[in-house]
Amino acid sequence: MVSRVANIVFIGMPGSGKSTVGVLVAKRLGLGFVDTDLLIQQEVGRTLQDIVDKDGYVALRNIEEQVLLGLNVDAQVISTGGSAVYSDAAMKHLKDNGTVVFLDIPLQSVVDRIGDYSLRGISRHPGQSLKELFDERFELYTQYADLTIKGENLNQGQVCEAVIAGLGA
User: Among 164, 165, 148, 168, which residue's Cα sits nearest to residue 77?
Assistant: First the structure.
């Protein structure tokens, strides 16, 4: 049997640094990098925002779940969409061969970093405020995280170092 090299799976709110820090960690550790938002867009040939606008947030979550369940990789840093944690099956699948890292930033940092979130393809109930979404997801991120990195007042390089130290890599 071939030994599998575990993945590092990033979860967190949009703007938390999952993609940016993910690439830095992958480079530092000599791993590949997968951005599941890009996989979703590639799979359906549409942007996340277009899916949400035309088909609704539930459709985006269903597509995301199928893409995550179909992801079978080793030695990769995986940046998930912020809503990946809504699928228990997908999160269990990712945890089967990976360490889940929650990039925890405060709500104000999310607002500062993403600006007009109506353009980000964020999966949320119609009329749901960013604060309500943040609170709802925080519980899920905490539930699935093997490691939580608090990113407030840290730059991307510092978050990368904190992740690597936290993983004992």
Answer: 164
Of 79, 76, 73, 75, nearest in space to 21 by CA: 79
1-52 pLDDT tens trace: 444 569 999 999 988 999 999 999 999 999 999 999 999 999 999 998 899 8
Report yes or no on whether pTM surpasses 0.85.
Answer: yes
Q: Which two tokens stand for residue 165?
A: 């130290």
Residue ranges per structural domain of the chain? 7-167
Q: Give the fold, CATH level 3, of 7-167.
A: Rossmann fold (3.40.50)
d(CA 100, CA 115): 26
- Asked whether the predicted pLDDT for residue 93 surpasses 70, the reply is yes
Helix residue ranges, H only, the chain: 18-29, 36-44, 48-55, 57-69, 88-96, 107-114, 130-144, 156-167
Q: How far apart are CA 59 and CA 54, in angstroms?
A: 9
Neighbours of 119 (CB within 10 A): 10
Rounded Cα gap, residues 80 and 64, in angstroms:
9
- Rounded to the nearest angstrom, the gap between the alpha carbon of residue 1 and the centroid of all alpha carbons in its chain is 30
